[in-house]
Every structure is written in C-alpha cells, then in structure tokens.
Amino acid sequence: MKIKxxxxxxxxxxxxxxxxxxxxxxxxxxxxxxxxxxLDESNEVGVLSKDMFEISDHSIPDFWVEENGQLAPEEWLWxxxxxxxxxxxxxxxxxxxxxQFMKGFEKFNLSFIPNRFKPAYDVNYKVNQINNYxxxxxxxxxxxxxYISWEYEFGSxxxxxxxxxxxxxxxxxxxxxxxxxxxxxxxxxxxKGLLExxxxxxxRVKPDVDKEWLGVMRNRILFSIWxxxxxxxxxxxxxxxxxxxxxxxxxxxxDDVFILSLNFST
Length: 266
Prior knowledge:
This protein has 266 residues and is an alpha+beta fold. It has 2 domains: 116 residues, no CATH class; 143 residues. It has 5 helices and 15 strands. The protein is elongated and about 75 Å long.
C-alpha cells in the first residue's frame, strides 16, 4: 500500500498541500485505527492521521494481519510488545520496542534500517544498557545495607573446558557445576523470578515500598535482556559453586551465552 499527502482547499481557490512534496508516494508499513505507519522522505518511520492522506496504491502485503483495528505485520500487534506502563506505543525509544518492531519490519525486505531502530541489531549497545540499569540498581541496594555492597553485572560468557568449570574471582579459580533451571518453564519466566533478588534489600528496609515501582525497575532489566535474542524460550543455568558463595546464572540461546551475576561483598 502507498499513500500521498492530500491537498486541502484555500479561500483563494488554490490548494495547499500538507507536504512540500505533494506528489511523493510513501510506503505504508501498517495501519492502527485512524493512523498510518509509513516511511517518510528520509526513510524514517512516521505516524500520522489517515485524514492527511489519500491512497495511491491499494495493494495489501500478504503478511499483514488484522486485529482490534490494527492492520500490520503480526509482530506489531500491541499484545506482542512488552510494556512498563501498559501502553507500549509510548515506549518507542526503548530497546525492547525496537527489537520487536524490527521483527515485523524485516518482512518488507527493504535494503536499509531506519536510524532510530539500528540499536535493535547492536548487541554491545544492549549489553551496555543492561549494565547501566544493573549499576543503578546495585548502587541503590548498597545504600540500603550497612555492611554489604551489591554487584550486579551482565556480559558475554566464554565457557572453558568440560565440567567442572571455574570462574576467576579475585585472581583465584572458583569451581562450579551448571544446573539447568528452565526445565518446566521458559527461560524468560525463570529470569523474571531470579530478578526478584534485585531491590530485595530495599523491600527489607522499607516493607511498604511501592511494589509497582519495583516491578517497573525489574522489568526494565528483564525486557532489556530479552532484547538480546527477542525470544522467551532460552536456557537458564544456575552455577553451583563449591563454596556456595555466589549467585551467577548463564543464559544460553543457540551458540550465544551470557552471564548474569547478582552478588554481594562484605
């Protein structure tokens, strides 16, 4: 489907276009009730009212689906997006929104990626975002404790040899075995439970803390980690150390493995 900006009448008899290029055609990416999602002159995604356009090409992509006033790639149905506040269209700049959006955009087989959505393919950017959120959480939790410092970290993991494995902690090897946690639940749900450890010091110090606010903080980390692969089904392993003094978890999808550390020091 393609559209053009309308020209509306003026009192002197001359038409005035909404756009400086009234004959420019725009590719429609999807329809949401009274709005078009389209590519503008700079190949960026625009969202404007249907009333501003006329249809120049009525053909519909065969991968569009219709549901609750939306006509778009299945990946763009609102129920497919994660949201911190219940309205995902307010979270366009969040990495989990960009990741889900690009799943549908890929179906158009275009030769470019709109600038604002390029981070959807940048794993390093996502890891940095996750660590920024974890750093804020760890510093806040540390403020709640008198004798404990919390260290929350996330990053790529390179396995070393056969079991037992080890991590180098303060220059010394710490041996562990892997225990698969995601046997009956998807990795996403297991991860959500593990992230309950974050901000738990705050809940101990202030039992009447706003639970919804805590949930938003944890979900920001959860959704950002989800964006690494954009899937809910991945393996989650707990690392069982010989001295039992650490909380480290491996997240694995295909050949990619990341480590999430939720540890403390005294």
